[in-house]
Design a protein that fits this description.
568 residues; alpha/beta; Rossmann fold; Hect, E3 ligase catalytic domain fold; 5-stranded parallel beta sheet; 21 helices; flat; disordered N terminus
Length: 568
C-alpha cells in the first residue's frame, strides 16, 4: 500500500510572499520562515509521494491585491508546462487576497490537475471540503483588505474636511511646520510671478523657460531616509501642476468637492480664475482614451530596437492623425539613428492582412510549429474557433498573446510569433476571449515572419507640376508589358517540358535560373494588377526592378499593398 502511494510522485512548489521589502517584520512573516515551514510540511507527506521542487518562488515586497508579481508569474508558467502538481504556501493571504483572481486561478489549476495546499489552514483543493474552506477564508481575507482600505479613505476624508494637509512633502511656496502648511515667502514670490506672467505667455512651456532663465528651481525635499529630491531647474510639468493646484487658493479639491484649508492663500481668486480660463482655452482636444484603439501599441519596435510610441499630431483643420513613431533619445541622436514614423491605420491594416494570410497557410503554420518543437498532430480542425470576426478589443488581446514582438524597417515588417501561444490558438474552441493565461518570464520558441513592406512615412518631396499627367491618357509601359509576356512565355515552356528541371529550362533559354524563377512568379499576380499594367493605369512608381526583385507573396491583397495598387 505504501509502495503504491509512493509511486505517484507529486511535484510540490513552495510559494512565499511578504508585502514590504526590507522592513523589520515579525519572524513569522519572513520568506525563509515560510519556506522552512512549507518544506517541513512536504517532508511529512513523503508517504503520499510529495517531492519538493528546488525552484524558489519568492515575492519580496509585493502586495496580494493582484497577480502582477514576478514569482507567481514564473510559477504559473511552470504550471502551464506541466512541471508542478501541488502549490504549497504558508497562508492563503500570502497567495492572494482577491476573490475574483482566486476563482479564475482555481479553474485554471483544476484544468491542469494542480492543487493548492495551505500549511497553517487545514484545506486541500483536491477535495470539495477543501475548496469550500478556501473560499470562506479568501472571502474574509478580501474583506480584511477592503476594510483597511475603507479606514484609510475615512481618515483622509476627515483630514480634508478639517482643512489639514494630506501629503508628506509640501509643494513649492509652503513649508510644513507641526503638521500644517506655512507660507514660504521666498518661494511664494515665484508662485505669484507664475500666475501673473501666464496671461502674457503663449503656453506653459514658454513660462517654464522664462522661470529657468530667472534661476528658479523645483523645491528641494529630503525624505526620512535622507534621499534628496528636487533642487533642479523647474520644468514645464512642474509649472503646469503649480498653476492647476488649488492649494495656492487656500483650498483642497477632491473628486469635484472643495474644502477650505487652514493655510494661508498665496494668490487671489481673480488671479486663479484668469489662469484657469486661459489653460482651458489653450487645452488641445484629445482623442478619447480607448486601449483597444491602438492595437499594436507596445508591440512594435523600429530597426534600432526602440519601442514605438503613439503620436497624435493635429493638422491645420484641427483633425487628429495617429502615428507609431520611435521615441527620440539623446543616445540615438549621438549615434546618428534617425526616427521612424508609420501611419497607425496603415500599419494595423497591413499587420492584420499578414497574420490572416499566415493563419491560412498550412505549410507555413506547420513550419512555425515544427521550429518551436511542437509537431502538428491534427490539421483538420485548425482555426475553426478563431475563424470568426474579432472586434478591435479582441484583436488587441490576440496580438498580445500571439506576437512577442514586431519590428518595422524601411523595407520590411518582421513579426516574432510565439509558437506556444500559436498552438493554443489553433486548438482553441472559439468560446469566450482568447487571452494569454500568464505572462512568461522565459523566452518561448518563436517563429520569424518576414514580409516586405513600405510602411515607413518618408519625408515629403517638393516638385513643380510642369505637365499635368492624366492617367486616362497614359499609354501602357512597354517594358512592363514585355516583362509580363516573358513571364507567360516562361510558364508555357515549363508546361511544355515537364520532364526537365527549372535549371535545365533556364539554361536552354540562356537565362539565369534565379531570374527565370522570378519571371515564373509574375504569373501569380492578381488579375486586376495584370490588367492595370496592360491598360497603363498602374502606379507611377511601379518599375521593372520593383516588380521583378520584390518578394511577392501569394496573397493578392498583400500584393496590392506592396506594389501600391488600390483594393478592388
Amino acid at each position: 500500500m505504501d509502495d503504491q502511494a509512493g509511486g505517484d510522485c507529486k511535484r510540490c512548489a513552495i510559494y512565499t510572499r511578504r508585502s514590504v521589502e526590507g522592513s523589520v517584520e515579525r519572524e513569522i512573516n519572513s520568506l525563509e520562515t515560510q519556506r522552512e515551514v512549507c518544506s517541513a510540511y512536504i517532508k511529512c507527506n513523503t508517504h503520499r509521494g510529495w517531492v519538493e521542487l528546488p525552484d524558489r518562488y519568492d515575492d519580496d515586497g509585493f502586495s496580494a491585491r493582484d497577480m502582477q508579481r514576478p514569482a507567481i508569474e514564473r510559477l504559473f508558467a511552470d504550471v502551464e508546462e506541466d512541471r508542478v502538481d501541488v502549490i504549497v504556501f504558508y497562508k492563503i493571504d500570502r497567495f492572494t487576497r482577491s476573490l475574483k483572481d482566486f476563482v479564475r486561478l482555481v479553474d485554471t489549476l483544476e484544468a491542469r490537475n494542480v492543487s493548492l495546499v495551505s500549511v497553517t489552514q487545514s484545506f486541500d483543493t483536491a477535495t470539495s471540503l477543501g475548496r469550500l474552506t478556501l473560499n470562506i477564508l479568501l472571502t474574509f481575507a478580501q474583506f480584511e483588505r477592503e476594510l483597511l482600505s475603507d479606514r484609510i479613505k475615512d481618515s483622509l476624508n476627515a483630514l480634508r474636511s478639517r482643512g489639514l494637509p494630506l501629503g508628506a512633502q509640501p509643494p513649492i511656496g509652503y513649508n510644513k511646520v507641526k503638521g500644517r502648511y506655512v507660507v514660504n515667502q521666498r518661494e511664494a514670490v515665484t508662485v505669484r510671478d507664475a500666475f501673473r506672467l501666464m496671461p502674457q505667455m503663449r503656453n506653459v512651456h514658454e513660462l517654464a523657460k522664462y522661470l529657468q532663465a530667472a534661476g528658479v528651481c523645483s523645491k528641494r525635499q529630503v525624505s526620512k531616509i535622507g534621499k534628496v529630491r528636487g533642487g533642479k531647474p523647474i520644468c514645464s510639468a512642474t509649472v503646469y501642476r503649480m498653476l492647476r493646484n488649488p492649494l495656492y487658493l487656500g483650498r483642497y479639491e477632491h473628486k469635484g468637492r472643495w474644502y477650505e484649508g487652514q493655510h494661508e492663500a498665496i494668490v487671489t481668486q481673480a488671479e486663479w480664475d484668469t489662469v484657469q480660463k486661459i489653460l482651458q482655452q489653450r487645452r488641445e482636444k484629445r482623442l478619447p482614451r480607448d486601449p483597444s484603439r491602438n492595437i499594436l501599441l507596445g508591440i512594435l519596435y523600429d530597426c534600432f530596437g526602440r519601442r514605438l510610441i503613439l503620436e497624435c499630431p493635429m493638422d491645420r483643420s484641427r483633425n487628429r492623425h495617429r502615428y507609431y513613431a520611435s521615441c527620440p533619445m539623446e543616445k540615438s541622436r549621438a549615434l546618428g539613428q534617425s526616427r521612424l514614423r508609420v501611419d497607425a491605420d496603415r500599419a494595423e491594416e497591413f499587420t492584420c492582412l499578414v497574420v490572416r494570410s499566415f493563419l491560412q497557410d498550412r505549410l507555413q503554420l506547420s513550419a512555425a510549429l515544427l521550429e518551436g518543437g511542437l509537431p502538428l498532430s491534427d490539421t483538420e480542425h485548425l482555426v475553426e474557433g478563431g475563424g470568426r470576426a474579432m472586434t478591435r478589443a479582441e484583436l488587441r488581446r490576440f496580438y498580445e498573446a500571439i506576437l512577442r514582438r514586431g519590428e518595422i524597417s524601411d523595407s520590411e515588417l518582421r513579426l516574432f510569433v510565439d509558437c506556444v501561444e500559436l498552438r493554443r490558438f489553433l486548438n482553441w474552441d472559439g468560446r469566450g476571449q482568447f487571452n494569454r493565461l500568464f505572462r512568461k518570464t522565459e523566452v518561448p520558441p518563436t517563429y520569424l515572419l518576414r514580409v516586405p513592406a513600405q510602411l515607413v512615412r518618408t519625408r515629403p518631396t517638393y516638385s513643380f507640376p510642369i505637365v499635368d499627367r492624366d492617367d486616362k491618357g497614359r499609354k501602357p509601359s512597354r517594358k512592363l508589358v514585355n516583362l509580363l509576356n516573358r513571364g507567360f512565355a516562361a510558364r508555357g515552356q515549363v508546361l511544355a517540358r515537364r520532364d526537365c528541371s527549372i535549371a535545365q529550362i533556364a539554361h536552354s533559354t540562356g537565362m539565369n535560373p534565379s531570374y527565370f524563377c522570378r519571371l515564373l512568379r509574375l504569373n501569380y499576380l492578381a488579375p486586376d494588377i495584370q490588367t492595370s499594367i496592360f491598360d497603363g493605369t498602374q502606379p507611377l512608381d511601379l518599375t521593372l526592378q520593383k516588380l521583378v526583385y520584390s518578394a511577392l507573396p501569394l496573397d493578392w491583397e498583400l500584393q496590392r499593398q506592396l506594389l501600391g495598387f488600390p483594393s478592388p
